[in-house]
Design goal:
Two copies of one chain form a homodimer. Chain A has 273 residues and is of the alpha/beta class. Chain A has eleven helices and ten strands.
Chain lengths: 273, 273
């Protein structure tokens, strides 16, 4: 399989350098020769939308995604409406940033009825789609690892995310593939193939053994057991040739100087992705 | 859906009372009116096989399963052979105990190649099957939660376990359904239906939110988000009417007096299973 010899498809997902503000992360990317960045909404809120747009634009970076929309299921109709409204604001921000996609982490079930929660996700995306379409924002449904089904997302397999995305029969809705969330799945390669033409993003990192923590246990590429390059190749076969985000939530990495993180990230990207 | 009004199908999986020896657990079951027990091999080793057989038989308990065989994949052929040999010993023990099934936790991948590890699992079961058949021992493939794919079992969905079991076209090989491992799966009810006639065991417990620990985070039925009764009903629809094991790995429960654990377990079983 083809290896990378340049960084032209690499994107820094901002959470990987959580120690940095938007400005610091953008300047770090410029220094490291990384052409794209994924912005997190909490960081954007700290800096302000217009200032974030200016910083990114002046640096000449592409915005591979905005993280995140979603969080749809809730017990009451008014809470669900509040979640929709919050997602409209996220769509506005994604439009202002010219982000390639708004990543959706769909949210947990508010009770024991996971099927009903899945229905709420479908309903919410249906409500959001016209708004996103008017603003030219794509919605990327990211299946999370099944260990997050109870507290982060009821959408936990790529097959399910793809079925959901295809229901809308719109180029504005697709899926985001993160190796950490899908690598374990005996159907992952079949699911990637089924997602052909609907993949809007690809995230890389690695799965440590033993896993120190479900949320913050992910590692730099090469430090775990995921067949990252094989997955990247499959995603390309399925038509995705866009940015590849490195997204790592890990305190050890957050304790490193940001420039060292980017240096290591670039090296591992060339070696393992 | 039908609720239970008696304990006739309840079984104590011995790990739930890890604070107890075989003898203590068996005597506890007798006091609590629990008619069946699942024995763990490490506890059996402490007590001795013949003594364990005698204790269980004299108490009049049924042995719903022996935990566990499996652990098949390994880097070298000699290691894989050693694993097969160890599983033959487990089959002998299951036969001596008249255990209804030997539960297989199939083992992790020894490297990044999860597909190859899955092939090793298939090969190992194929090798073991004649030995198990001669001794009248059933092999129950238990899919684990996908968060254990890297360190405990490469078999992580019920669909995959069922496909694997059906390959052997033998009543001696089937699947074991544990609610903790399968509840998140959008295909779980379809998978249970596909497993009709092949289900050899059913384990209950619950998924706490937030999950304090991947291995030891499971809880008593009713303390989490799993639709246990709906899953039990589906498993019955698929033809399983055997023992229902309560299997909980949890330090808080292990710190309780064993009799209190059994009392709580019986109450929650009647309320939630």
């Amino acid at each position: 399989m083809k290896t990378f010899s340049d960084l032209s498809r690499l994107s820094l997902n901002q959470i990987t350098t959580n120690q940095w503000s938007v400005r610091e992360a953008v300047e770090g990317c410029v220094r490291a020769g990384i052409p794209a960045i994924a912005i997190w909404r909490n960081k954007l809120a700290e800096t302000g939308l217009q200032e974030t747009v200016n910083i990114v634009r002046n640096a000449g970076l592409t915005v591979s995604s905005l993280c995140r929309g979603g969080g749809f299921p809730a017990t009451s109709a008014s809470e669900r409406q509040a979640n929709i409204d919050e997602n409209r604001r996220a769509i506005d921000e994604a439009a202002a940033l010219h982000a390639a996609v708004l990543v959706l982490v769909c949210g947990p079930t508010p009770d024991r009825n996971i099927d009903a929660a899945r229905g709420m996700v479908t309903d919410a995306i249906e409500q959001l789609l016209p708004y996103a379409t008017e603003r030219g924002v794509k919605l990327g449904i990211e299946p999370l690892h099944p260990m997050f089904a109870a507290d982060r997302s009821v959408i936990v397999t790529l097959a399910e995310a793809t079925r959901l995305a295809k229901r809308f029969a719109s180029p504005q809705v697709g899926v985001v593939v993160d190796v950490y969330h899908v690598w374990w799945d005996p159907e992952v390669y079949a699911s990637i193939e089924q997602a052909t033409g609907h993949i809007l993003g690809f995230h890389v990192n690695d799965w440590a053994v033993p896993l120190p923590d479900t949320l913050h246990g992910r590692r730099m590429m090469g430090d775990g057991v995921i067949e990252i390059r094989r997955l990247r190749h499959a995603v390309e076969q399925a038509g995705y040739h866009g940015p590849i985000e490195v997204e790592i939530l890990n305190q050890t990495i957050w304790n490193m100087p940001g420039d060292d993180v980017l240096k290591l990230m670039c090296q591992r990207y060339l070696e393992h992705v």
